[in-house]
Every structure is written in C-alpha cells, then in structure tokens.
Amino acid sequence: MTTPVYENFINGHFLKNQTGDTFAVKNPATDEVIYHVEIADEFIQNAAIESAKQGFAAWSAMTPIERSRILLKAVAILRERNDELAKVEVLDTGKPWQEAECVDVETGADVIEYFAGLAPAQVGQQQMVGNDFYYTRKEPLGICAGIGAWNYPLQIACWKSGPALAAGNAVIFKPSEETPLGAIKLAEIFIEAGVPAGVFNVVQGAAEVGQWLTANPNIEKVSFTGEVGTGKKVMASAAGSLKDVTMELGGKSPLLVFDDADVSQAVSAAMLGNFYTQGEICTNCTRIYVHKNVYQQFIDELKTRTEQNIIAGDPMDPEVNLGALISKKHQELVLGYIDKGIQEGATLLTGGKALSPASAPNGYFVEPTVFVDCKDDMTIVKEEIFGPVMSVLVFDDEDDVIQRANDTHLGLAAGVFTKDIQRAHRVIHQLQAGICWINSYGNSPAEMPVGGYKQSGVGRENGIETLDHYTQTKSIYVGMSNIESPF
Ligand code: NAD
Description:
Layout: E1 5-6, E2 8-10, E3 13-15, E4 22-27, E5 32-38, H1 42-60, H2 64-80, H3 82-93, H4 97-100, H5 104-118, E6 126-129, E7 132-140, E8 143-147, H6 153-166, E9 170-174, H7 181-193, E10 200-202, H8 207-215, E11 219-225, H9 228-239, E12 244-248, E13 254-257, H10 263-275, E14 287-291, H11 295-309, H12 328-343, E15 347-350, E16 354-355, E17 365-366, E18 369-372, H13 379-382, E19 389-395, H14 398-406, E20 410-411, E21 413-417, H15 421-430, E22 435-438, E23 453-454, E24 457-458, H16 465-469, E25 471-478
Parallel strand pairs: 1-5, 8-9, 8-11, 9-10, 11-12, 13-14, 13-21, 14-19, 18-19, 21-22
Antiparallel strand pairs: 2-3, 4-5, 6-7, 7-25, 12-24, 15-18, 16-17, 20-23
The structure holds nicotinamide-adenine-dinucleotide (NAD).
C-alpha cells in the first residue's frame, strides 16, 4: 500500500519541491509509516518568502474587523471538523482520542476566536503636548515565523497564528517533523475561510528548515516552542537580524502539597500534571513536594489510583487514557531517566517499564511511573523528562520548600494545594514561575497569558498582552504651530 506524500503549503496551495527529498512520519502507537512529507528546499523557501510578502500586503490592508470576520469563519470550520482533526492529532502524536477529541482542536480554536475578537479593539494613544499632539498606531510586524513542538501540534499552530494573523501579519509556520499534518489542515481551513493566499504558509522539515527561518532577514519575528537548548540556538540565530522572539520552552515545575490540602484533589492534580498526554506537557508538575504529615496518605492514594485507573492501549479507543510516546528514541530516553532514578537511589513506587498493550503492541508506551523518597539533587528531579515520570519529595517547612522549589534554572509553572487562603497566595507570590495554579493544575484558557520565568521562556502567549508582541507602535507627532528654529 502506498502512503500519501504531502507537499509544502505555499501561497494558498500545495507546492512540489525541486529536490524530491521527503521524510517519513510514523504513528507512535503502531510504529508504522503513515505518510511522507516533502522537505522545504531552497525553491520552497524562496517561494514561501515571496508568498508571505504578497500575503502580508493583502492582509495588512484589510481592516481589523474584516480580518476578524474571516478568522471567526476559520474558528467555525475548526469546530465543525473537530473529530477529523482530532484523529489527525491522535495518529501523529500517539495521544489518547479522549483527550484530543475535547482539548486539542477546541483550545486551538478558542485562541483564534479570542484574538479575532480582540484585534478590532486594539487602539493607539493620543496626547496633547502643548498645542501640538502625538498619536500612536499599532502596526503589524510583517512576516512572522512560527516553529512548533510535537506534543500539541495543531494547538501550537493555532496559538501562534491566532494573534499573528489577527494583528495583520503573515506567517510562515514550521511544524515539528514528527507531527506535520495538523498545520497543513489549518492552512487549508484558513483558505476555506477566506484568508488570502500567502498569509499562512507551511514549510516542512527539521532543524535545517528551522535554522533557515530564524536567520532569514525578511522575517521580523520568530515564535518558538520547544526545548531550552533549541530555544537558545533559535534566539542566537534570530539576533543576527535582530528579530523579535517569543520562546515557549521546557520546565521542571513544582507542586507543593501542604498538610491542610484536600489530598485526593492534590493526587488528581499530580496525576493530571504527570500522566495527561502521557507526560509530554511542558507545564507538568514533575516535582511534587508533599508535607510530611500527609506524605504517606498522598503516596498510598497515588499508588492505588495510578495502578487501577490508567488504561494504556490503542489511542483511538475512547476508553484509553494513556497513549504512546512520540518516538522510539523518546521512549528510550524516558526509560534511560527511569534507570538513572533507580541507580541514584530513588524508590520506585509504581511503573518503571516499557509497556506493550494488547491493542497496540508495537507502540512506544511507558508505564506511568512514580518515584518517591526523591532528593533534590537527583537527575530525575533536576532534568525535564517529558514522559510519564513523577518524582515525589517530602518537606516540613514552608520557607524551605519555597527555596527548594525555586532552586532550578527553569520557571515555567508551579502549583500549590492548601486550604489556607493566605498561605496559598503568600507561597505562589514567592514561586519563580510564569504560570501558577492554586488548588488546580494545568488549565490554560485563551484569556490567560502563559510563558516562562528564567530559562523557560521569553515573552507570553495568549491573553491581551500577546497582541502587543505581534504589533509595533508607530508614534506620529503633529505640529500645530510654526516651527521654532535657530537656523
Ligand atoms: P525541539 O526543541 O527538539 O524542537 C522544536 C522545534 O524546533 C521543531 O519544529 C524542530 O524541528 C525545530 N528545531 C530543531 N532545531 C532547530 C534549530 N536549530 N533552529 C530552529 N528550529 C529548530 O522540541 P520538541 O522535542 O519538539 O518538543 C519538546 C519540548 O518542547 C519540551 O522541552 C517541552 O517542554 C517544550 N514545550 C514547551 C511548551 C511551552 O509552551 N512552554 C509547549 C510545548 C512543548
């Protein structure tokens, strides 16, 4: 059986490359190649820039309300095609259908809808300066590049294109080479909704194509989602042409469970923040600090629920709630971290092995894994694993646990469970993280800005302020009286 070959999406249609080079994409749950994708060669790259230039000219000339109307059509199509698009995400990522069906497309559509609504409301300022005055205009940047990770491919494409397009920019988007199809589907939907050709282009490939985007002087901004190490390379390359950057990077986020917390709720948060999307979520609370008075109760309930309530298997089965990791290589990396945890003396409470479920025997599954009695200097506690591996640590003093939670170069997210309202806010205010939850974990609505402190990121996505990251301010001074000149 031959598999489909997808071309790059440029100027409103698929465009064949000249080298004929392609790469294969596998379904992580079956280890089978499901389609091939053409790599963006020099011909495609040049065409993408020309296309985006033309797209920008047409799109930025429209009024914000015209753009808004078109983007809202795209939102409606995304929602209509929810199931078809969710299936694409399941086959590309290996995540459970029961998640993709209600989260991936929905949260992507929400963000485009949010920015489509905001764009017509973005205003400049006007101020008198004596008899003269100035006013400001919010103008789009031009061509923006988006580079995506593989864990939420369609959602990331929506989160980057939503504010960029609402503000009047053109976009060249490069999805992860592991999960290239969602962005193509989005490109088709934008065209169907009436977004002019050239406004949203998709180029395909791995690091080399990403590097080309970050170095290209025609591109004004790069919004990147991925690993910290890659983010540093992207930022260094973008500096060559002084591009604006947004960086959504990795994390090693703490969850603090105090002894007055609702322990069952805290266990729910810990499981969601470690096993949802089989642990491949940047904000995951992979360091769980539990007060010594509730430590035993917490780990007893955690063990029972982890062993009884998790169903791994064919991700398209609606009962399955633990999918396959993205690749064989990633599965090996995660298993390597588990070995390290054991070697360095952490106690394995449950899990720890690769899984081969009957309904998906060749998939890259890893058992939901919990380490207890962890120490702060263990590798599993310090490094992002990006798999279903939780580390539980004990604490007994508030100031001490805050200091331990902050003792990392990362700062993406953090959470606190306590019924003491003053402690909840006091502690959260001291945690060095950009996305925080109190008695909750993981929700990320379109309205709420998200991004990292320290090496977890630069800039924010979502929320009102993001529109400012996709526009630039032009100040215009208006003279109302004769110029006073010594010349
Ligand atoms: P990655 O850094 O390996 O790749 C991300 C993207 O960068 C891919 O599209 C890849 O092709 C591209 N790329 C690779 N090298 C490049 C280079 N030199 N120049 C330009 N582009 C290059 O990350 P990943 O493995 O795809 O994703 C997992 C990581 O993403 C984790 O660290 C996770 O925490 C992070 N992540 C962060 C967020 C967030 O919002 N903060 C969200 C999702 C994932």
